[in-house]
Prior knowledge:
Structural class: alpha+beta
Helix content: 10-25%
Low-confidence stretches: none
Amino acid sequence: MKITRYRTGGNSKAVTILSIEKVWPLFTTETKDTPVSRLRESIKHTFAGIRCSYADHLPVFTFSGVFDRKPPYRLLQYNSIVLLEVTRLLTRKEVVQIRNKAASLPQTLAAFTGSGGKSVKILVRFSLPDGTLPQV
């Protein structure tokens, strides 16, 4: 199963197609630049409604499938993964409780804490009633 990752650097955007198995280790260990830790620390000192500049340094993962490498970034292959997001959580305890509860459900492919530390991302599989996937 393949997904798409977007990274921006300066004036360019890099698009990478990855297998979902190669993505999981990226979520469990941080690179030497520690972009997630920096983002979470800077959010504490940022006013509501102001975008934190560290957010621009994080890659964006599109779990729903494979997209073109160049604009207009059309969907080429749908893989049946849908991202659900629970946002605006107040405490770390609340994040952990919701993440663990979602992870325990049989429909959940994965559940993890968002980069800001105040949300939970839940990946679920979706198919049509007959078990087939919608066509692109």
